[in-house]
Every structure is written in structure tokens, then in C-alpha cells.
Amino acid sequence: MASKIDQFCALFKSIQFKVQKEPEKPVVSKQTLDGQNKEKVLIELNKALSRAKSEFNSAKKMHKHGKMSASELFDFEVRLQEIRDQINRIKEDDSNGFDEFEELGGEE
Q: 3-class DSSP state for residue 102?
């Protein structure tokens, strides 16, 4: 039995169809994607860190002038530390991942 493409082409015998295959897409490994994702996350976290630093500095000035309570200032400081911790965790995971691969390679 002829395929649907052959049946379609048979309807138009006077026209020649040139069928081209799409070029093959490059194979992207999961490690490459993970590395790219980590880089993007680190870039965004660094941007958030710089924004949080400027907000914290503004909050310190407001607190100094009596326009903000100490607990509100503390919230800004906590957020700043949370972002730093997230960046450190990602960097540690990245360095620990390489150590695991090196250990596997050394055992073979």
C-alpha cells in the first residue's frame, strides 16, 4: 500500500515535488544544559544581590533618619543573606559535582 505522500504526489503527475529533510539538530547533553542553566541562575541571583544591596543601603539610611524600624531593617538584611546563601549553594553544588565525576574517573 502506498504511503499518503505517494498518494498525494500521484494526484499531481505533471508536477515534480522536491522533498527535503530538515537538517539534523545538534545533540545537546544534559550536562551542557545544566551548566547553562546554572550560569543563567547565577547571573540572575547576582542581579538580585546588587538590587538587594542597594535596597539595604537605602533602608539603613531610612533607619538612621528614624523612618524605619529595626525589625524592617532586619528583614532587608535577612533577604540579602538569603540571596548570598543561594549563590553559595549553587557554587558548592557545582564544585561538588566535579569532584564526584573525578572520583568516578579515578576508580576505573
A: helix
Q: From first to last of the 108 residues of the chain, give the pLDDT tens digit.
A: 567 877 877 888 787 767 677 777 766 666 665 777 888 889 999 999 999 999 999 999 999 999 999 999 999 999 999 999 999 998 888 776 654 444 444 443
Compute the residue count for the chain: 108
Question: For the chain, how far is it from start to end, CA to CA, in angstroms?
Answer: 53
User: Could you tell me the three cell numbers for 43?
Assistant: 547571573
Q: What is the pTM of this model?
A: 0.57
Residue 78's Cβ-side half-sphere holds a number of Cα atoms within 13 Å equal to 6
- Where are the chain's structural domains? 56-108
CB 62 within 8 A of CB 21: no
